Fold each of these.
Amino acid sequence: MTFSVHISVLVIAITLAGLGIFGNGIGLSVHLSTRCDKRQSVYFVTKGFSESLLLVCTILQNSLPLMTDPTTIITDYFHPILYQFSLFSRSWITVVIGVEKLLAVWAPFFARAHFDRGLEIKLSLITVGIAAVFTAGDFLTKHFTSYLARVMNIEYLFVGGEIKMPLYSVIICSLLPWVIVLVCSVVTVLGIRSSRKKRAKLTNTRNREGNDQADNNTSDLMVPVFLCLLAFIISSIPVVMYTVLVTIGNTLESAILSDKALVIMGMVYLFSDLIGYSIDFYVSLAVREEFRQQLKANLLSIENSFLRQDV
């Protein structure tokens, strides 16, 4: 990639990342507001914070090649650790969201009895804690027992440009969560369709209007979550494809992707990641009435505070 092309890509990447960080920051303020749905907000606060860190990593990783002498603490410590921790947290909190929605459809009484805000806070903290332990363990393995990688011939992948991660880390942080979220989403959709068909059979014509209203209420609750899950699935497809291709290449002991294909794949990685890390706020803004009302209330509160200062 030429220097001018790299500069153009960097400008676009920084612009998209800036919009993503801006949106995630506003989204966090809305989810942390007292009037917002606290149960649903717990997961989205964790996810939004992780995605903001990933956007920072994306800007940093694409700026490293332009640095004449990037410090070791950035290239070998801060950047890879922050990236892997954030990626693990974001991926597995999305898995938790997908599994909860699956249980809400297929086992509604169980979900209603057990899933409350307290449990969701615990699950979020557990996810972040496991991410920290996994990242620390992987870091120690890489830097203090690197001879194991040579002995075991562990393959490394380039994920997100210049970040080197072991193949097993890519599988745990990206491939496995993607598969679980995809399966949960498909099974949940099938469950919703099945429940609607059952209600249609049991409901007579006089109650048809109430039945339609119940379906609309379910859609209002599920659509924002499903759109966020869909964004996760679509944005993770490049890393899933790359993981599969590299695994096949390692098995066959031959390169599947050429150098040009690797550059193109890196570009696809970059922009799919930027969109995937930034889209939750804009989805919520488009389809969630409660989210828009709370955002408007927050903006009015900020405006009133400025007016009081001027007085």
Amino acid sequence: MFDNVDMRASFKLAYDLNGDVRIKAYSATGATRNTPYTIQIDEFGPFQEDLADSVEVYYVGVPDHTVLSAVADWFQIGGRITAMIIPSIDIAVGHALIMFDGVISDVGSDYGGIAGQFAVCRTASVNTLTVDCILVPERITGTT
């Protein structure tokens, strides 16, 4: 019945005792630990793609281990991440991270739930490549 259909992971989210929220998504190319990716959903289920300038609605998902290619695996979309890999930026405690033209940046003010905001910074960082943050488990539309 489903011979020619690319079946992916389930649509449901998983919650753990730490308050983290995860989604199982198909990864065609693989994924690097602690690196953010877009998690989009189509009629076959969730799938992971590299960050890109997009008008699609998606989660920002971060794997806590290296994900192999051509498999479905878990990506964290909500809760604390202590070393998420980001471009080199300066950010203050409480500021939101935003997706803008496919690039993560500091919104310049506290988290307010506006378009593109997907995380809240927990520690101040100066010219750093990793950030301690809390992912907000909501789907966003990247801004352009």
